[in-house]
Amino acid sequence: MNAVIHNFTTEVPEWRPRVKPIDLEEATPEQLDALKVTPSNTKVSDYVLVLANDVETLKVRTPLFNAIMYNKGGLSRAEREIGATAASVVNRCVYCAAVHSSRYNQLAKDEAVMQRIFADGEEADLDERASAIFKFATKLSKAPSEADADDMQRLRDIGMSEEEILDLILSTALFGWANRLMHVLGDPVAKAD
Asked: Which GO terms describe its molecular function (predicted)?
């Protein structure tokens, strides 16, 4: 059995479910319908197959996820990944941190940002905008009630629009929930050789 991974990485590990995923061969028409909105051009992940055990939740979760992470306008896709990574680091969700840091690297074509975040956390030496995004998302993830009007004003002061700020809050908050699901429903494990 592959070992559980405990350290942050930009290499996406496998995910071993603790709750049995549905079997596509035996899926109900309702489960198959709910899976149609999954944003995958390869295979449906075990995580999504676990969520398909609750069709109604999956039917709502997936469009919400897609709208928050993939909508046009507002915060760039790469910057949304910084928010998702910050939440994942705070919540120690190694799998999600790997997925979102890897996606950031692909979008931004800059691996240094995530290397610094994983090495130095909130003290990471980032440009002003990336630093503000990461620090706000970290604060929101650690103590939501402490993210206040002053924090929002700091984001405006570096040139972020209201739409960008909302996108950052949504992407960060979404992964507070997703991290909890990933933690309880399975484990990040080393890829099989």
From this structure: peroxiredoxin activity
